[in-house]
Design goal:
Protein name: ATP-binding protein
CATH topology of one domain: Heat Shock Protein 90
Keywords: ATP-binding, Kinase, Membrane, Nucleotide-binding, Transferase, Transmembrane, Transmembrane helix, Two-component regulatory system
Strand order of the largest sheet: 2-4-5-7-6
GO molecular function, one term: ATP binding
Number of helices: 21
Organism: Streptomyces liliifuscus
Strand content: 5-15%
Pfam family, one: HATPase_c
Oligomer: single chain
Number of strands: 12
Length: 778
């Protein structure tokens, strides 16, 4: 905005000086023209150099630029006594007045330089007035008008700048809030993908190992090594595109009794972004595993084809089928690994199945034109992008534009009111004897004041001016222009008694600030046309009169039109550009934050698994640990239960503790253990770290139980207790050591009590809520 204002000031001053100077020379006597030209031509050249400096700012030091600006003021001021007459007075007032006003924008960041040039302009103006009228004192009224203009221009700049900076700060706060939301959403999406990967790989492998011996384990070492690779990979950073047909050709069919023969019918190649491609591949792999484990058949059909800009993949089998609505929410093979995984990349998945009929799973990628689902945290391919970026960018631009519009309207309203009730009011009072009739001019003044008051009332209340009020006010302003033009002697048009000519345009600009500048230009054309018509109807004016009117028109209406052009540029050029640049910078910051947080989250997750899960997979993958070993199978069962409890943490349920405990119970039930679960008391809130430590000892005992176990949860106002009784716990001492080793890794204040009697084991974990929390569990 500062650069735009500087350019505006230089161009405005240069155009006004050249046009008004040319009109002044035209109105001068033939004998005075050479001397006037000798003064004005260097001023024109200085303006040209100043314009050139906008293109090459580094070539011109600030001292030289200030000297050029000062030279323009001095040369134009000294031309007043040379040209002489009323036209010279009007010319110099317009040229010096516009120059000192423009200096406030050219030197906006250096107010001292702008003030010094304004003071120089005032001195030169007074000196020129004295030299042009020897023996008479200076006319202080034009000087007062000039100083008022300088003060108003500086005040307008401060108002617009203040609101622009406030808009920037507010936009930055909003952008920071959105960034935090987007980062959190991306982290949640990556967390879902990571949990789905663990479910499909390590969790499934460990659960299969824990379920018993007597099978071919030749598939286990490569599977364990693949699981380690999947766990160590950072999800969410896939880039580029893949051939989905080639990817589906790599779907593992399993080994031995778990092998599922796939009949593939794929119309390839199918090029899609790598994010959706990998999501479909992982989902198909999980679906094939489900066929092997649950369908009761060893054959399935895999199809893929294009659909519009997207792709469709379908896996079907003729197995025993099931009722999808009966699947518990804690089971993640369908909800997490298939459906949620596709939603996270902007696709969709569906499962259709009926008992004894079979199952059909379908994945759909809708192409790049489809918008991400609401709530998605990532956008494939590549590092996740913030959702609805275009909508947010439009909102930012609209917000910045709104604040700039409010600031400019406020500044123009200030100019309108101050000008009308200082300069215009004095002219109206002093020249009452000139008007024909005077009461019409007074009524017009009151009407114009009412226009400003009505519009200002809407502005100060933060409301838009209704269209009916806007056009009524514009009509009133034109009526004021007509009344003042036709009740004023023609020779006084645009002169000292014409209080309305220079102020009506400011009122119209305030009313039309939010519209395109051509509407305001049309109003100014009608305003100038009414005054020119009034003059022309009284007789043809002289060249000097036309020159004087032209200079006045350029000095007032031309200035107002240039301000309108600047406002349009700021609102429709600078604001979108600023919004686009801010959006680009914010997107880069968001991407960096997402990248950093996802890397850190991944390290934290992997670190949490290195103490337990990773050693098991390493041992199984390299043959150090044998699945025939009962202790190894028990350890795999414990880790599978811990993972299932981890998956349950992301569920939105009323009682997270009970939900996560049931996830561990289900693992034990898959191993043939009968578990009874009882809950006593009213559930309450328990931090996630505490829930982990309350459930882990129970998960260890359940994983080592051979036949039956009883789990009890007791809620009291101050204490939460989770206990398990196992009638036949294998390796009781080993179970106790495993639970204790896991419990030492945290600082959470959970007390664990263990009692063994023969083959029975009783373990109770308790947590006492700190009294300072002030929250009751009842």
């Amino acid at each position: 905005m500062i650069l735009a204002l500087e350019r505006f000031g230089v161009w405005l001053r240069s155009i006004v000086v050249c046009l008004c100077g040319a009109l002044g020379v035209v109105s001068a006597d033939a004998a005075e023209i050479p001397l006037a030209v000798s003064l004005l031509v260097p001023a024109f050249l200085a303006c040209g150099v100043r314009l050139y400096s906008l293109r090459r700012p580094r070539m011109f030091p600030l001292a030289l630029l200030w000297t050029l600006d000062a030279a323009v003021v001095v040369l134009t001021g000294l031309s007043q006594p040379v040209i002489g007459g009323e036209a010279a007075d009007v010319m110099v007032e317009a040229m010096v007045g516009i120059s000192v006003v423009a200096f406030q924008y050219e030197w906006a960041t250096r107010p001292v330089a702008g003030a010094a040039l304004a003071a120089l302009g005032a001195v030169v103006f007074v000196l020129g007035d004295v030299l042009s009228s020897p023996g008479h004192g200076p006319d202080w009224v034009p000087l007062a008008r000039m100083l008022i203009q300088v003060g108003l221009s500086r005040a307008a700049y401060l108002i617009v700048r203040g609101l622009a900076r406030a808009a920037d700060r507010s936009a930055a706060v909003r952008a920071a809030a959105r960034r935090e939301m987007e980062v959190a959403a991306a982290r949640r999406a990556t967390e879902r993908e990571y949990l789905a990967t663990l479910h499909d790989t390590a969790s499934a492998t460990l659960l299969m190992v824990s379920q018993g011996d007597g099978r071919d384990w030749s598939w286990l070492p490569p599977r364990a090594r693949q699981d380690l690779e999947a766990m160590s990979a950072v999800p969410g950073f896939e880039t580029g595109s893949v051939d989905l047909a080639a990817l589906l050709g790599c779907v593992p069919e399993g080994e031995g009794q778990t092998r599922v023969r796939l009949k593939t019918r794929i119309d390839g190649p199918l090029a899609i972004p790598s994010g959706p491609g990998l999501a479909i591949f992982n989902g198909v792999r999980e679906a094939v595993t489900n066929v092997a484990r649950h369908a009761g058949v060893r054959e399935a059909e895999l199809r893929a084809w294009t659909e519009g800009e997207g792709a469709v993949v379908e896996l079907s089998d003729a197995g025993r089928g099931f009722n999808p609505e009966s699947v518990p929410a804690r089971r993640r093979g369908i909800s997490g690994s298939i459906i949620a995984r596709m939603h996270a990349v902007g696709g969709s998945a569906s499962v259709t199945s009926h008992p004894d009929i079979g199952t059909r799973v379908q994945w759909r990628w809708h192409g790049q034109t489809r918008a991400p689902q609401a709530g998605d945290g990532a956008q494939a391919p590549g590092v996740p992008r913030p959702p609805r970026a275009q909508v947010q960018h439009t909102a930012d631009v609209r917000f910045i534009r709104g604040r700039l519009l409010y600031g400019t309207q406020l500044a123009v309203l200030l100019i309108s009111l101050v000008w009308q009730f200082t300069i215009s009011l004095r002219r109206l009072v002093v020249h009452q004897d000139v008007y024909r009739p005077a009461w019409a001019q007074t009524a017009a003044f009151v009407c114009l004041a009412a226009v400003a008051v009505i519009g200002g009332a809407y502005l100060l209340r933060g409301r838009q001016i209704p269209p009916r009020v806007r056009w009524w006010s514009l009509g009133s302003a034109l009526a004021v222009s007509a009344v003042c033009a036709f009740t004023l002697p023609p020779e006084q048009s645009t002169g000292a008694p014409d209080w309305a000519f220079g102020v009506v345009g400011w009122h119209a600009l305030f009313l039309l600030a939010d519209l395109r500048v051509r509407v305001f230009a049309a109003f100014l054309g009608a305003h100038v046309g009414l005054n020119a018509t009034a003059v022309f109807l009284s007789g043809a004016p002289t060249v000097a009169q036309w020159a004087t009117m032209g200079i006045s028109t350029i000095g007032s209406c031309g200035f107002q039109l240039s301000v309108g052009v600047l406002m349009t540029y700021l609102l429709h050029g600078t604001a979108p550009a600023a919004g686009t640049e801010a959006a680009r910078e914010e997107e880069l910051r968001t991407r960096e934050r997402i990248h950093e947080d996802m890397q850190r989250d991944h390290k934290d997750r992997y670190r949490a698994l290195t103490a337990t899960t990773v050693p098991l997979l390493v041992g199984l993958g390299h043959g150090v640990l044998s699945p025939h070993d009962e202790e190894v199978r028990f350890r795999c069962g414990v880790e599978a239960a811990r993972m299932r409890r981890l998956f349950a943490e992301s569920d939105a349920v009323l009682d997270p503790l009970l939900n996560e405990l049931r996830a561990c119970v289900e693992v034990a039930e898959h191993q043939g253990v009968t578990v009874s679960l009882a809950v006593r008391g009213q559930p309450g809130e328990v931090p996630v770290e505490v829930r982990r430590e309350l459930i882990d000892p129970v998960a260890v005992i359940l994983s080592r139980t051979r036949s039956t176990a009883r789990v009890t949860v007791v809620w009291t106002p101050r204490v939460v207790r989770v206990s398990v009784v196992s009638e036949d716990c294998a390796g009781g001492r080993g179970a106790e050591r495993a639970a204790q080793a896991h419990g030492r890794a945290t600082d959470v204040k959970v007390d664990v009590t263990r009692t063994m009697r023969g083959g029975s084991v009783w373990v109770e974990a308790g947590w006492r809520r700190p009294a300072a929390s002030g929250v009751d569990l009842t």
